[in-house]
Backbone:
């Protein structure tokens, strides 16, 4: 690992002052679970690393005015230990159960997982479905952007030099809303997802009033599949409609071949998993679906 | 290159040392002679370098040495000694949960952290608790047996003490 300068500011404002005017010469250290291996591999060569670990005010989980606010330095283990997250953000809680392993979860942070902007980021997929927004602070002030706009390309985000992601916030879904999450990996623990699906479904009088569906590892960024959501809206959801929704999700994914799976397999799994999760979360009877056999 | 003076505690002992910013906690601990902290993958995949950092099990290869100012680190060395084994160590031996032994220090610390949090875990919870620690020899069954036996033993001891 090449040498670099190291700062461990005690406050967010001190951190913002430290990176102001540094251009792209610095890296922010949160949990370090990706940054430190990247430094070791020589994938990045920052002149300065700024550790946010000493900033206690960036570690919190709060419910306020119907919204959940999570400080960027909150670890995945903090979220797993939070009854607030378990009770009021079941989709996020379900998703983090399969986040890496306990050793990584004790270090990895929500803010780091989002800024890292991997298409497989395990918190990004449920947070996209939850309509989360992220707060970006800089020495000049702050701006809040929708997570849906935050990811711009593979491992690229809207963050500008001098900005630090300080908070994730999302509206707490009303209790009637059903959710479903599934992460397909090569193994149970420590897996990077092959395909992951998160969804929220609002059913009123058997009709789908609203739907939010997000997918991971099927495009350059984690993404919302709005065209698949539109298939469900205003209709009575049964297994047939869930299949149509799955097919639409697959059509709007742009997966690649990599060491974990082929693009074709991923596309097929989009259809299968979206169908399965809709049926499971709404308690609709369904039989296993083989889209390839049915000429999809 | 600039070095940083860092004070922290390892197994209850005060340590003060100077490290360059790029040294990982794993590298620093081994430089200081804590060879029980094993160097496996150096990217957080294998868990061989597990230590307890302020009570929580972490991969020491994913922490920079300069980040541990004022922190408390526990390595397997303080778990027990050759003539006074920790119940987990006794059961690892009894159940044949050690073959080559490379994963054992990390495995023991993850097991300890699990039992500290959950005194009577199910086999599934044990699987989950050690899921960040790779073992290429045992197939895990004997490790899970040993942890389960330790939990049962600690529970019986507690009951005995109550009567």
Residues:
């Amino acid at each position: 690992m090449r040498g670099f300068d190291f700062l461990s500011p005690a406050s967010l404002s001190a951190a913002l002052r430290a990176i102001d005017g540094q251009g792209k010469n610095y890296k922010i250290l949160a949990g370090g679970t990706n940054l430190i291996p990247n430094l070791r591999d020589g994938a990045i060569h920052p002149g300065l690393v700024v550790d946010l670990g000493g900033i206690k005010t960036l570690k919190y989980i709060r419910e306020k005015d119907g919204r959940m606010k999570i400080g960027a330095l909150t670890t995945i283990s903090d979220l797993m230990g939070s009854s607030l997250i378990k009770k009021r953000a079941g989709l996020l809680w379900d998703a983090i159960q399969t986040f890496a392993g306990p050793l990584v979860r004790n270090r990895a942070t929500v803010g780091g997982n989002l800024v890292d902007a991997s298409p497989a980021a395990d918190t990004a997929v449920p947070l996209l479905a939850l309509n989360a927004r992220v707060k970006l602070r800089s020495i000049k002030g702050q701006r809040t952007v929708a997570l849906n706009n935050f990811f711009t390309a593979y491992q690229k985000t809207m963050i500008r030099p001098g900005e630090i992601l300080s908070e994730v916030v999302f509206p707490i879904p009303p209790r009637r809303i059903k959710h479903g999450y599934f992460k397909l990996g090569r193994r149970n623990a420590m897996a990077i997802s092959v395909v992951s699906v998160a969804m929220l479904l609002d059913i009123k009088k058997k009709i789908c009033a609203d739907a939010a569906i997000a997918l991971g590892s099927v495009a350059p960024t984690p993404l919302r599949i709005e065209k698949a959501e539109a298939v469900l809206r205003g209709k009575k959801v049964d297994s047939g409609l869930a299949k149509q929704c799955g097919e639409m999700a697959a059509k709007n994914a742009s997966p690649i071949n990599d060491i974990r799976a082929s693009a074709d397999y991923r596309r097929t799994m989009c259809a299968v998993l979206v169908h399965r999760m809709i049926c499971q979360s709404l308690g609709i009877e369904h039989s296993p679906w083989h889209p390839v056999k049915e000429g999809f | 290159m600039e070095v940083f003076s860092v004070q922290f505690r390892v197994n209850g002992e005060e340590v003060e040392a100077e490290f360059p910013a790029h040294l990982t906690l794993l590298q620093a601990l081994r430089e200081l002679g804590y060879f029980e902290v094993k160097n496996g993958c150096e990217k957080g995949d294998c868990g061989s370098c597990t230590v307890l950092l302020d009570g929580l099990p972490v991969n020491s290869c994913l922490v920079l040495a300069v980040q541990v100012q004022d922190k408390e680190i526990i390595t397997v060395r303080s778990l027990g000694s050759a003539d006074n084994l920790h119940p987990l160590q006794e059961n690892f031996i009894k159940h044949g949960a050690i073959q080559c032994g490379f994963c054992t220090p990390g495995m023991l610390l993850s097991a300890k952290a699990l039992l500290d949090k959950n005194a009577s875990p199910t086999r599934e919870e044990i699987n989950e608790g050690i899921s960040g620690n790779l073992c290429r020899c045992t197939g895990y069954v004997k490790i899970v047996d040993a942890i389960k036996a330790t939990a049962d033993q600690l529970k019986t001891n507690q009951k005995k003490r109550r009567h």
